[in-house]
Amino acid sequence: MEKQRIFSFKSRALYLFLINNTNIIYIMLSFFILIRSSLAAAYIPEYNLILSKTAEQHGSGLYQIDQDVIFHVTDEPLVVHETWWIANENMMKVQIEGRNSLKGIVQGVLIYDQQKKYWFDNTVQSKRLGEDWIEPYFYFRVSKNMKNHLVAVKITPPTSLKDRVTIPSPTGEFKYQPQPFIGLSRVLGSISYVIGIPAKDPSSGYTSGIWIEQDQFVVRKLKLPSQATVTTEDYFRQPEGLWLPKTRSVTWENKSVQIQLNRVQTLGKNNFKNGELFKTSSLEKKQNTPSPKWSDQDLIREFYNRFR
Length: 308
Known about the structure:
This protein is an alpha+beta fold. The strands form two sheets. A 13-stranded antiparallel sheet has the order 6-5-4-3-2-1-15-14-13-12-11-10-9, with helices on one face. The protein has helices at 2-20, 22-42, 47-55, 143-152, 298-306, and strands at residues 63-71, 78-88, 91-98, 107-112, 116-121, 123-128, 166-168, 174-176, 182-187, 190-198, 206-213, 219-223, 229-238, 242-252, 255-266. The termini are far apart. Strand 9 (182-187) and strand 10 (190-198) form a beta hairpin. Mean pLDDT is 84; it is low at 25-41. It has five helices and 15 strands.
C-alpha cells in the first residue's frame, strides 16, 4: 500500500508538472525536432557514394532514344528530331533530322567516343569534344569515368580523385575531413548535392558544378565552366532502370533551347558488344548516312557546334 501511495504521488506530481509547463515542453520538443531535421538535411555522403548511386540510375544495355530539340527563334518554334543510340558515356551515336520547315535543311549522323566526335563529309571527319559536351552527365555508368571527366573540364579539383583524409578526434576516433567541393543546394524545390568549385564570393554559389538530387540521385542541374547551364524537369523511370528527364533546358548567353524526350526503347544488353553500330566505318557514304547539313539559323548552328 505504501509503495502504491508513493507511486500515486509521483504520478500526480508529474501530471501537475506537465500541465503547468506545457509551453516549455513544447519549445523543447520543437527544438529537438528542429535539431534532428537540420542534422539529417546537413548530412552529405562520401563523394564516391554520390556518383556511384547516380551511375546506378543510368540503366544497362543499349538504348534507342527519340527526342526533339526545340529552338524558339521565330513565331513558330523550329524543331530538330534526334534519334540516339546509347551504350554508355563513351559509346553514343545520333541521327539528326529537321522537321517541318527544317526538313532536308538540317540532317546528319554523328558518332561519339570518350574524346572525339566523328561524321562523314567525303571522308570521315573528327573533332575533339569540348567542355560543353553535355550528354555523358546523363548516361555515365562508371563513377570513376565521371570523376576523371569532372576534373578534366575543371568542375572539380584534382584532389577530388584522392581518398578522403581522416583526422583524429580528441576521443581517439577518426573522422573524415569534409570535402570542400561538395555542398547542399536547393534546385526547383528539391534538395541536391552540388559538386563543384565554390566561387570566391560565397553569395555567388559555385563557378561550375553538377547538382544531384538528394533522394533520387538524378542530375537536376549542370553548370559548365563556360557558364552554360542545363536544368531538368519531370524524371521518369525508363526500361532497365534508366532515369531520364522529360524536359531539359539548355541556356547560355541569354539563349535557350529545350530538349523534349519522346520515347525510350531498350535494344538489349548484348547488341552493342561488337561495337558495329559505333564504328566510324559505319559513317561511310550510304543512303541512310547523310552528310551533315545545318540551318542558316545561328542558334541552331551554335547549339550543334557547342553541345553536340
